[in-house]
């Protein structure tokens, strides 16, 4: 059983299914925590449609889909915020394959994609209730910093400087 990660159009059937799973999970977690119920189905559909992912396409972005043993199992996206800064988004691994290294591989692939887009740093935001995500980012060298956006759901912001190409080549096993 192995992971493979490759760029994929945001609107491919597999990418769209992963987006739906991700959005449903994080939305339901928020509503269950704050209001005691799952996301209203109509609101869920509007949210999924409103954030389809068109910004995750070249030349300013990229969506990566991870497959575990050939099956779509995770995603990560990057988009340029400016010439030097990319934002990491949509990092998600389906429940059945969590704990098998996919999240770290997806983030590493997203960092490579951000560097290929010209970014020198990568930023992200997350919520307090997404404790697994915050632990992952800290483990992967991200530093908590001040806000880089005004997303009403963001409670934690992280940043990581991307290594120059020569340094990454030297540091690889």
From TrEMBL:
Pfam families: Acetyltransf_1. The keyword Kinase does not apply. Signal peptide: none annotated. The keyword Magnesium does not apply. Keywords: Acyltransferase, Transferase. InterPro entries: Acyl_CoA_acyltransferase, Bact_Acetyltransf, GNAT_dom. GO terms for molecular function: acyltransferase activity, transferring groups other than amino-acyl groups. Residues 17-163 form the N-acetyltransferase domain. This is N-acetyltransferase.
């Amino acid at each position: 059983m192995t992971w493979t990660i490759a760029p994929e159009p945001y609107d491919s059937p597999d990418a769209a299914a992963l987006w739906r799973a991700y959005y449903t999970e994080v939305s339901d977690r928020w509503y269950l925590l704050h209001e005691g119920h799952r996301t209203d189905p109509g609101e869920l559909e509007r949210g999924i449609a409103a954030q389809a992912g068109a910004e995750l396409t070249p030349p300013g972005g990229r969506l990566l889909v991870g497959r575990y043993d050939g099956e779509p199992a995770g995603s990560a996206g990057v988009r340029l915020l400016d010439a030097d800064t990319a934002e990491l988004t949509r990092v998600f691994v389906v429940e059945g394959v969590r704990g098998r290294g996919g999240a770290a591989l997806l983030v590493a692939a997203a960092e490579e994609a951000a560097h290929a887009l010209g970014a020198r740093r990568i930023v992200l935001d997350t919520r307090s209730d997404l404790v697994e995500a915050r632990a992952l980012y800290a483990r992967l060298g991200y530093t908590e910093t001040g806000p880089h956006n005004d997303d009403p759901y963001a409670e934690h912001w992280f940043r990581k400087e991307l290594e120059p190409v020569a340094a990454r080549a030297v540091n690889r096993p």
